[in-house]
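In the design runs reported in the main text, the only information available to the sequence generator was the tokenized backbone. The following block is the verbatim input for one such run; it is reproduced so that readers can re-run the procedure and compare outputs position by position.
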């Protein structure tokens, strides 16, 4: 079995994507905080990165926040991906085929630990499609006769619109 080379980095804790970018009119730009994070990542990785990685990649991102504020784990990945691309780790963040992101409890040393490896696609025999997915049964308005492969019907007990709704919502017949 061949050994797979894994790149590991410890980066500063990233700003949320809500603060990483800012919008001015119709343009989206990096915020001051986003530029500072990008510069910090480039400074940490200067000299450690050779040629940018090519091919599909899988990434493990472990986030250790600085405090106990509630955070969504999916708000931090974009800043890390873009900063690693800007630092020359890989050509484009669209190369990331699989990502595992874990948000850990707060740590005194807030950080983002990144592990990057070549993506090895799973063998289809390892992941068979469950039989329940191949013959889906949807419940329709007539629950006594389930059908296979049809989309569910949404039925309403009201045939007329409620009072207060504009008549323009309903199609009208035009006489010529």
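Verbatim output:
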């Amino acid at each position: 079995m061949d050994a797979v080379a894994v790149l590991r980095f410890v980066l500063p804790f990233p700003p949320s994507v809500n603060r990483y970018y800012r919008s001015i009119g119709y343009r989206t730009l990096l915020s001051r905080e986003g530029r500072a994070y990008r510069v910090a990542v480039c400074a940490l990785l200067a000299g450690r990165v050779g040629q940018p990685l090519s091919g599909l990649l899988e990434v493990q991102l472990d986030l250790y926040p600085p405090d106990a504020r509630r955070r969504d784990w999916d708000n931090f990945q974009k800043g890390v991906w873009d900063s690693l691309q800007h630092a020359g780790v890989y050509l484009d963040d669209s190369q990331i085929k699989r990502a595992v992101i874990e948000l850990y409890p707060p740590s005194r040393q807030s950080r983002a630990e990144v592990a990057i490896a070549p993506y090895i696609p799973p063998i289809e025999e390892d992941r068979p499609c469950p039989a329940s997915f191949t013959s889906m049964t949807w419940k329709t308005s007539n629950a006594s006769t389930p059908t296979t492969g049809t989309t569910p019907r949404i039925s309403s007990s009201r045939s007329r619109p409620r009072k207060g709704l504009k008549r323009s919502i309903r199609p009208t017949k035009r006489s010529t």
